[in-house]
Design goal:
mainly alpha, elongated, 2 helices
Length: 80
């Protein structure tokens, strides 16, 4: 956009257009990504207390495999 142009106006109540998902390779999953998935594992396991580390490590391993592009292999317990 040139400096003398005004920015496009949005219609009141209209939502922004959906942006296409772009695959951006990451070398390492973020802390937040791991936390969200670990919590999902916790909920899927019936909110069992005392297993936070197990859920965290499973989420970390799962996401790292996705970042590495290795789809198959181990399940979230680490067993092939």
């Amino acid at each position: 956009m040139k400096s003398n142009e005004t920015p496009p106006q949005t219609v009141q109540g209209a939502s922004a257009p959906a942006l296409p998902e772009v695959a951006v390779p990451r070398l390492k999953p973020t802390h937040e990504d791991i936390a969200v998935l670990a919590y999902q594992f916790y909920e899927n396991d019936g909110c069992r207390d005392g297993c936070a580390e197990v859920y965290w490590l499973a989420a970390e391993r799962f996401l790292q495999q996705r970042c590495d592009g290795s789809a198959g292999g181990a399940d979230e317990t680490g067993k092939a």
